[in-house]
Structures are given as C-alpha cells and as structure tokens.
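Hi,

I'm pasting everything inline rather than attaching a file, because the server keeps stripping attachments. The sequence lines come first, and each chain or strand is labelled.
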Amino acid sequence: MKLLIANRGEIAVRIIRACQEMGIRTVAVYSEADRVSPHVLMADEAHAIGPAPAAESYLDMDRLLDVARTSGAQLIHPGYGFLAENPDFAAKVEATGLTWVGPPAEVIRLMGSKTASRRLAGEAGAPLIPGLMEPIAEPGQLEAFVEEHGLPVLLKAVAGGGGKGMRRVDRKEDLAAALERARSEGAAYFGDDRVYAERLVDRPRHIEVQVAADRFGAAVAVGERECSIQRRHQKVVEECPSPVVTPEIRQRLFDAALAVVRASGYQSVGTVEFLMDRDGQFYFLEMNTRLQVEHPVTEAVYGVDLVREQIRIALGEPLSLKQEELCPRGHAIECRVYAEDPFRGFAPSPGRIVFLRRPSGPGVRVDSGVLNGTTVPLEYDPMLAKLIVWGPDRPVAVSRLRRALSEYCISGIATTLPLFRFLVRRPEFASADFHTWYLDELLPTLDAGGGPPVQAEDAPDDVAVMTAACLATLESGWLEESRGVRPESWWREGLRQLHGRFPR
Amino acid sequence: MKLLIANRGEIAVRIIRACQEMGIRTVAVYSEADRVSPHVLMADEAHAIGPAPAAESYLDMDRLLDVARTSGAQLIHPGYGFLAENPDFAAKVEATGLTWVGPPAEVIRLMGSKTASRRLAGEAGAPLIPGLMEPIAEPGQLEAFVEEHGLPVLLKAVAGGGGKGMRRVDRKEDLAAALERARSEGAAYFGDDRVYAERLVDRPRHIEVQVAADRFGAAVAVGERECSIQRRHQKVVEECPSPVVTPEIRQRLFDAALAVVRASGYQSVGTVEFLMDRDGQFYFLEMNTRLQVEHPVTEAVYGVDLVREQIRIALGEPLSLKQEELCPRGHAIECRVYAEDPFRGFAPSPGRIVFLRRPSGPGVRVDSGVLNGTTVPLEYDPMLAKLIVWGPDRPVAVSRLRRALSEYCISGIATTLPLFRFLVRRPEFASADFHTWYLDELLPTLDAGGGPPVQAEDAPDDVAVMTAACLATLESGWLEESRGVRPESWWREGLRQLHGRFPR
Amino acid sequence: MKWVVRLDGGDREVEVEPVSGGFAVTLDGHTQMVDLVRLDGTLASVLVRPGGASYEIAYQHETRTGWRLTVGEREIQLDVLAPIEAIAARTGGGGAGAARIEAPIPGRVVAVKVAPGDEVRPGQPVVVLEAMKMENELVAERSGTVQEVFAAAGDVVDAGFVLVVIA
Amino acid sequence: MKWVVRLDGGDREVEVEPVSGGFAVTLDGHTQMVDLVRLDGTLASVLVRPGGASYEIAYQHETRTGWRLTVGEREIQLDVLAPIEAIAARTGGGGAGAARIEAPIPGRVVAVKVAPGDEVRPGQPVVVLEAMKMENELVAERSGTVQEVFAAAGDVVDAGFVLVVIA
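And the predicted assembly:
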C-alpha cells in the first residue's frame, strides 16, 4: 500500500512515521524550496511539484493528483493547513478513486461554514454563544442583536477559521464601519463576504475535544485539550488534560462533542472546539475536520496513535479505540516552535539554522520539520517543530518542560523558544491561570528590550562577556601570530593593526 | 541542594536531567578523555578528576570525595558500573556525612556475595536453582553435588556479577580443571577465589523485578522486565513487561522479589533477578543494588521516574509509589547501542563519530552519552546510547522499534545498530521466542561476511554503487576541471592522470 | 589581548591572556580561568575556575564585531571591539567616519530608495526589506552622503549584510 | 567519468555524466537519473528517476578508494576505482606492485614486528594493533620485502591508516 502526503514540514514527517510503522509506503511531494526537507529524505519516494509559492505547488490539486496517479498511491493524507479542509480537493480525491484520509467532502463543507456548523451544533444540543444564526443581510440585524445582547460583539467571517477573519467591536458607533471592513476582509481572505455576529466572551479559555468516528457509527471522545495560550488567536502552547476541567464538565464536553460528531455524520479523527467562560460554562466554537497540530498531547496522555487511527478509519476499518478503555494518565504540554521573534512582535525570522540540538530523555518528544544546516523557507507557515513533554502530573510536566527547553537550542534564526522559557517560569503558568487573551495582554507589559526579563537563575552577563572575548581572541589569529604565524585575512590584519597600537 | 554524579556517559546525563527537573544543582566529574562529554556540558559545574584510565579517575574514591567536599555537594549518585556496587565507597560517602543515593553499604556488601544473597533469598522463600549454599572448600564437594544433580553445572565466582566469573562444565572429567580455572579467574577479576556451583538451567529466560523501598518499610514491585537477549551474559535488548509472564506468575515474582527486599532491609530502587526455565519455573539469580541500565522500559510502561524516586528515597522521603496505583500500560523495548561490530565478534570500534542522527517522534526516547563530532574513548564501557520505544502493545512497539532503528544513524564507527535492525525482523523476535543463549547460538549460524543478511526490502546494491560513483565524481574535481578549474590535490591529480588514459 | 565588549549599550573592558588549560580573563579587575573548548564552529564548552561552573555555549560570529551567544537559556547579542574601535564608535557617532545600514534580519530587498551621491537626513528611509510577509523600512541614523549601495531590489540578503554606506 | 565500483569482491562498471538536475548514471547498460544533494560533508539526499525513489545516505570517504555508505538500514563498504586501478589491482595481486598493510579499525599500535628491508612470508605477523582490550595481529598477505614502515609502537591510528608497505 502507498500513501501520498500532500504536505511538508513536521506533519509530513509525523505521517511518514505512522506509515512506516504500519508498513505503508510513502510518497512525498516537494516544492523547489523543499528539495532537502526532512519529509523528502524520509519518504520512500519524492516528487517535485513546482516552485516555492504554495499556490504553485502544495495547493496545486491537479499536480498532486497527477503525482498520486503516476506513483501508484492509493491514499492521500492532507496533514493540516494547505488543502486539509478544502472540500473540493477531498471530492476530487474521492472522484479519482483514491482514498481520502479525512472525513467525507460534504462534512468538510458543512463544518467549514461557521453559521451552518453553529446551526448543526445547536440543533444537536451543544451550547452556543448567543449570536446570529444566519449571515448579516443588512446592518439593522446587527444593531438589533447588539440591542438585545449588548457589547462587545465579535464579527466573524462565515468562511473564516484558524483565528482569521474576526473583528471585535466595543462601541455602538463603530458597528457599521466594522461590518464593512469585516465583509471586505472576508472577501479578500476567503472569497466570501458573509459575516455574522456573536457576543464576545470575556477572557475565555479554549477547550477542545479530540474525537474519532468510523463509518460504522462508532465514535469516541479521546479527552480534551486546553489551548488557551494564544497570540492573536493562534495557539502557542497546548496541554492535555485541561487543568480546569472537572470530571463532570468533561462528561458534558464529551456529550456535546459526540452529539456534533453524530449529527454531522463525521468519520475520521477531528476536533470539536469550545470556549469556556470564567464560570465554567462552555460554548461550541467550531469543528476542525482534520488532524490538529496539537494532537501529540492527547497521544501522550491517552497512549493512542491518532494518525494510525485516522489511516485505519480511512481504510474502512472499525475504530480500535473504545470509550471505556480510554484512560488518561498524567499530563502533557506542547510548545510550538516558530521561526519568529516573540519579543519583537513575532517578527518572522527566516534564515539558515547553523546549530540545532533537540532535547531528549524521559517524557520528551520532538516532532521536527527542519534539519541542521538547512534554510527555513520564506514561503510557508513558520512552525519549525513541536516540543511535547509528558509527566505523571502537571507540576512534573512543567518542570520537565523547563528542563527540555533548556536543552533545546536553535541558532541562526530567532525562535519562540525564549518565550517558552519565560512562560514556563511565570506563576500564572504554574497555576494554569490563563485565558486566550493572556499572552496578548502580557507581552506589551514587559520592558522588552528585545528579550525576556533576565531571571535570577540565568547565566550572568559576565560569562557571555568573557566567552565572547575568548572566542574573539581565538578567531583574531593573535594566538597564531604570537607563535610566529602571520594572520592572513583582512579582518585579522585589521585587528592586528588596531591592537598593535596598544601595549599587550 | 547539590548532587555529585560519580559517573559519565548516558547515565550521568540521565541523572542530570532528573536533578534539573527536581531543582537540584549538579556537579559532574570528568577524566582527561571526557572534557567535552555531554555530562560535562550539561551539569552546573564540572571538575577534572584525573587521567583517562578509570582507576585513576572515576574509581578514585578519595578524589571524588574531595570534589564533593570542595564543591559543596550534599549527595553522591554513583549511577551504574564504576563504584555503584562498591560497599566501601558507599560507607566512605556516608562516613563523610554525605548522602549516598543507593542502599546502605551493608546491604550492598551482603547482596554482593553470591552465596550470602542466595542464602538470604532462600530463607526469605524465593525459589533457588539447586546448588551449593557455600563456597567449594575442596573438589569432593563439587563431585558430590554433580553426583546428586547431574550435569551440566555452572561454576560461579562468589564475588562475580554482570555476567562475569561463570564457567559451564558438561563432562565429569573436566570438573577438577574447571574448578581450578574458575578459582584463578575469580582471584584475577574480583580478588576473591571462592567459587560455588549451581545446576545449569537449559536455555533460560532472564526475568527481573524492579523494586523500590523506603526507610519506613514501604516497598513496591514496579513490574518485571525480560532481558533474555544477551551476548555472552551481557544484556543487549530488554523489554517490559515480559511477553511470557502471566498475571499469576507475575504475582509470584513480585512476592519473591519483595520477600528478598524485606529480608535484606533494602532501601532505594533495585532489581531482583530471576532465571525462568522452559516450564515457567523461576529461580532467584541475584540482586542488583543500584539503578539498572534498562530502567527506562519500566518508566515507559508504568509512567514513573525511577531516578527521581531513587533520589527522593535517599533524601529520606517516603515512597511516592503505591502498589495498587502502579498500573502498566502498553509495552516498551530498549536496545543498547554499543561501539562494537556485532558481526565481527563484537569487536570494539572506538573512533570519531562523524555523523549522528537520533530517532524521534511518537513513543521514542533516546538516552545518549555521546555527541556528534566527538571521539569515543577507548577506556570505558563502549555503550553509546539507549534507544527506548513504547507502544500500546508489543506488536506496535516492535514496529515502532523498527521505524526508530531506520532513523538512527551513527557514522564513523561500527555500532550494534545493524544487529538490532536484523533482530527486529526475525520471526523469533516477533513471537518473543528467545532465551539467554539465543543470540550466542544465532550469530555463528549466519553466513556473516561482516554484516547481517540483506533483506528483500533493503535498499538495493545499485543505489549504493551509483551514489558512490557520483560522490567520487564530485570529489574528484573533474567537474571543476571540465569548467576550466585545475584540480589541486595530489589525489585529484592522480585521478586525472588515470582517467586521462581513457576516453570520456 | 584587550577587548571592549559592548552589551545592551554598556561597555566592559576585558583582558584575555592565554595560559595553560585556557585563558586568564580579567574583567572589572577580577581574574578568572576560562577553560574554553570549541566542539565545532558553533558550540563551545566553557568551564570557569575556580568553582568549575559549566556552560554550554552556542555561538555565531554574525557581523565583523557582532556575536550572538546562547548561554544556558539566554540568547545574548554583543559586540567585541578592539579598544580603538570602541572609542571611535563612541565619539564618531555625530559626524566623522562612515555609517553602514545593515540588514537586521535575513530577507528580500523590496526597494532601495537612495543612490550614491544622494544626501540623506536622519530617519530618512533608505532600504525596504521584506521578511516573510512583513516589510521593514531601514532608515538612515544620521545625515550624510550615500557613498555606496550594495543591494538592489530583489536581492536576498543575510542578517548583517551591509546594504548602504553613508559618509 | 568512468568508474569501477568494487563491492563484496565483485566489480561493477559505472559511467557518470553530469546533466541538468543531477547525474545520468549508466550501470549494466541501464541509465538512470541520480539527483544527489549533499547536505554537509557526511549526508546526501539521493532521488533516483524515473520513479523518484528517495534515499538518505550517510557517507564517509574512508581511504583513498574506500567509501562507507549507510543506505536506509544497510551499511555498505565499497571501493571506487578508476578503471586502470581496477585492472592493476586485479592482476597485481600475486607479485608485482606494492602491498599495503592498513589498520582495519582505529587503535593503538602495540608492536611493529618488521623493519624496512626485512623479508616477509604470507601470514607472517607484521603489526600488533590494540583496540580497547583486544589485540589484533595484522599479517602479510604475500611474500616480499618491507619497503616502508609508517607506524611505531604507541601510535594511535585511524582505520585505513597505512602501517607498512611491502614490495
């Protein structure tokens, strides 16, 4: 059996590993920017699909189907991002007689509409944030909603997702202009100008339920995850289980998630997302009809392999997971390592990785999509790798995360690692006292200066100063010169002249 | 708090990681051969203790105690090997007022004697292999034993351990000479010429029970491990749980192990080893009064941290593990990666590691004591690293092991990795049909030729031939020359002349 | 060998003397033994004696004087200058000497807004550099005349690459 | 460029021609496209077309003609010879040409049992090499006169190091 991975980076590597363990051969595709990416090196075969821009390679459906046909692949796994939630691609794959590793195309389409999925979830009995059930046809509807539910409200693109296409409105007089901008953004980003409105939940937590369902009607909830540490609606740190979900809340979350799964005819692994307010009330947010970036924390705590399960379901096998046998153990935390400078407004930081050391040892897993010595392309999502730690309880997991972060070293580009090292030492992190606005509120309060505040236990400046001086001495050629060897480079010669004016 | 690690390699790294997670500062010691070893780089401080030979560094008790005193360490962790089972060192450490991370010196001494520990285990009710309870005073005792129990017998040095100091005798006429040689070996290796005899168990399995006991009398059995894949009595592959131990046998193993723990007054983590015959009968073998190399498979299956527990016990805290809460999940397998060539009689292979890539991803842990670009010293145990995989059941663990082995790459020296790649594909490995003689019987039957038999799914020779020819072309300078650049090295010049005689 | 190490705007004078087993390093009148071993071009093991404190330090020589070190969990950027350079850099700011506009991060040059001979004022945009989807305007820090332009629109440049020299 | 690749004692003739995107490699009369990219001095990504089979290959150039490749799970040792060398090596075995005693593994030279000018017979011990706790006797493979001795007792040598040349 052969499976084509229509993706790149760490998720392509993750899928290749699952296939290798299942005895399935893998076909990688790569753009010109990815010739020596890990997924190309690890797959059984690899095929070029075009230039670096995603629209001309990883999003080129016909090209991908072409490669699938000529390579003899029977399955296509979309990973996440790119075409993973594109119902047209899923339909094309199925029409070609290939097996799509994901839910049926019509379920992707249904859950891809914010308003349609809200309606479905509401009818299935999942609690909803008060909001409009249909796109706003004319501004009066929005004003009427605000009249009834108050401010602030959140305007959301019907086709939005992944944190994009949202606009908060705090003042009544801004409503009309905000609606106009939200519509034009929706049209620009998603080709769909429809917008609806929801009451804004104050400082909510993001809680999501991992589900899996087969074509025989069996469905399970594989625990919940908490992903409240976000920056601008993008998840940065995720954990399993949620530190605030009680067994009683968990049962209600599972019931709501499985109701949505059954009502939508879902088949595959997927995630039902909820917001939870300060009182422990939760509300359906959306369903992600694919594998999530943060699936490893669930794997660590529940001892399952979600990618293997996903492929098994796609192959028509019954679920191997049974609700009564799914028993959580311990606590897992994931950090997303991005090529971004978190203390300079998450400025992108492409470039060459000149030194890379990954943490290891007990309870540590790294899913990485980059190699030492390679260049991080400018064209794609800047996530380099995921660090996942597990511990028998949350405090041990936190201390293990701290240890693993101290071992993790990526030089040559800025990454979010310093942010995690900072976060893991915050008291709010230890007490799990956070919400989805936490990071966006915290970072501007720091006296940044381009880095996290120095902690008492950090290495002192003196060590860096002394080391740099020793390294400069070694590289200056002065040691060779004092042994009678003349420095040769212009830089060394310049240094020699400068130092020559001073007594040694 | 500060802990000195009287060891090197992967176990020193493992202990440093546990300390970092516990907030304990670490003091590394290093010989001249280990200045840039991982444990030196990872510890909070590091002190030189002498030249490369272990007797002048890692075995120098006074030097170690000196460093402990000047660095202000309160605890000493011996790891395994070196001084870990030396009761004199444990006693010296305790006499200095430092905390020894291990059982009391007198327990080490007691269990270090094969005959004394056999007697103790027998009195505690653990089943014993029929054998002499006292060292052989004169050859007649051995002949009488053979008269009663038959041949073959195993002569064992009283002070032996770790697979050393054993001699099998199959013929009556060899008894006297074998006893003589066993005595002189015992004297040479252990400074103790006392020898006793046991009936030889035919093709036994090695099963051991991980135990932990505190100073308040609490003791638990943390599952069993099977370590039957050995070469010349040295463990090579270990797993947890044993594929052949039934719940009923497990309970009896736990009872026997805990009886030994209680009878000996054991405190710390430790291991009670048993041999199991083809009928499922098991016999006490010996007790290891230290952390075992293979402890990670237990950690993976039971979700515990044995090093943390060991340090907690040494600090006088009560056991955090409770027997009724210890619940195994899934299956774990460990492979010991040695710098040895398994297909040339495990010939040692020191040298420089020129490329190192460790496996990662779900269910994979690597505890490594080497860095890329560094040289494996000639002076110490040649174990480089341990690969540990976990899966929800044994078949998944085996397929994951196979996948992880395909990702693991160490170039520059020969290692046991090719042996594991060969083993993991053997039907006996899949069916767990092995015993402690398995590997020693299997390897000589291979039409070796210096490597494992090539499998159908292996990369074909052609790929290697084509790649080598391309690499040689690139390095020959011919491509530069054809662009008008003259090759400069003697090697390139020679090649140019040789090729010049042939038409291109 | 004497150096001035500039870190967060402050200057520290350091003297480095090779001795058996490493360097004797004098900082603020206090001398310590630094045992530094480079593992490859990017990683060093540093032991500071007495005390034996151990640091694993990843390093990059980013620009002529600029170094970036990862010490434990900290990433530190500093400049190592010969003493004369430190003085020149401190006194020269206002007028004398050449000022260089370097690429602060790797990226693609979107536009070069000046040509040799142009007069520039402090704050005037000189180069627009794109990294991923963000455009960064690099501005002149002082007034002067553009002496050299080393980049053109479309070029992909590394961090530290000198784009424009202003005299 | 033509090569003879020797693997497990068998010789394979290979012709390598650089083409756009890699090499056209002819082996046993069959030509395939080899797209080979070196990541650093020890690792290469190889795609073989048509088919696109992907191999991650770690390589070492161990001796002048000797290469060690790790292809997937296999570690393969082979010699890449210029055609003239292959012929010389095959016909030269009995008498003509020099024979070299190389260190098969890295180790420490315990003893060198010959000196330049000595006559040796096949099987005669020439050098004793210790690696860890094992001593290995290296013997002459054919008779001849010792021409050069490149090692002395106490030397630590790498694999492939030429210890003695017999003419």
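Confidence is low (pLDDT under 50) at residues 487-491, 500-504 of chain B.

If the labels don't parse on your end, tell me and I'll reformat.
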